[in-house]
């Protein structure tokens, strides 16, 4: 199997890497953190690069690219610790293009592609514990449209978003709705999260909503899988840069008159970090390539990828801190921010134990060994 990237994909990677190096420095990131953890200016720059349009179908003003292209982009954004949630554009374009009506597609996909509208998934509820089929939100038919009553938590950049994709119970079944921010009955409470990005709690009280699909669970599962594929790719980028920072530090830090990179025990730990990174990279590739598979196969594949990524992110982050010593957790040092990002990513989109549960529930008699 050929895992080489095409020339176009390599050029895309180089373009994003150049922007990260020049346009999203650590100093700029820290200034955005002080402003709340989200920058509309940066979002517009991502749109100018064509990244918000990357996976939107061409007929709606997008570039019509696939999962591998999105993976390439997210790896580079991970290296730069970019906080603006580009993955949400991939999630929204996937859900709307595959499940939305023609009217919804025509109204929203061109604006998502142009970066004019930030549409984010608002699915998590307190009691759900990552389960997609647990949903207390309610939707009611109201004339030609619908209203939604819901409370959703940890919505990415929720107080900055222009609209939300909200699952809610409709006639005893989960349906998916589009709810605009600023509409009557819609309120958000924004806050900074562990990795210094932005999230919010969303409250809808009889808020006007547009139906995306009455068969919401398959669409919601797709949204989670697309989001986790992007998260895995971003995690590879974060871990790669974490490993680079760690090795650079070890080649500078001296103890007993020699650099600590010369100590065999520490070199073995770095080798283990590299191994975990490469295991994560291979599973990220696997997950992205499985996004086009049938729904059940895709969902189990993403659970496999997320389990490996969770284990790798925890290991690489913790070993980096140990090898740095005290400086590894100081706010002034960039490495501590990579550690915080890895810590939060392990719990985003379902933590490792949650996805282990999915895998165990889908084991067959052969456990896949002889199949």
Topology at a glance:
Layout: H1 7-23, H2 26-34, H3 40-48, H4 67-79, H5 86-99, H6 102-114, E1 119-121, E2 138-142, E3 145-156, E4 163-170, E5 173-180, E6 186-192, E7 198-213, H7 216-250, E8 254-255, E9 258-259, H8 264-289, H9 295-324, H10 334-346, H11 352-361
Parallel strand pairs: 1-4
Antiparallel strand pairs: 2-3, 3-7, 4-5, 5-7, 6-7, 8-9
Q: Give Rg in angstroms.
A: 21 Å
Q: What is the CATH fold-level name of the largest domain?
A: Butyryl-CoA Dehydrogenase, subunit A, domain 3
Gap from first CA to last CA:
20 Å
**Poorly predicted runs:** none
Description:
The mean pLDDT is 94. 51% of the residues lie in helices and 17% in strands. The chain has 371 residues and is of the alpha+beta class. It has 3 domains: 7-114, Acyl-CoA dehydrogenase/oxidase, N-terminal domain (Butyryl-Coa Dehydrogenase, subunit A, domain 1, Orthogonal Bundle); 119-213, Butyryl-CoA Dehydrogenase, subunit A, domain 2; 219-362, Up-down Bundle (Butyryl-CoA Dehydrogenase, subunit A, domain 3), CATH 1.20.140.10. It has 11 helices and 9 strands. The two termini are 20 Å apart. The strands form 2 sheets. Strands 1, 2, 3, 4, 5, 6 and 7 form a 7-stranded mixed β-sheet that branches. Strands 8-9 form a two-stranded antiparallel sheet. The relative contact order is 0.10.
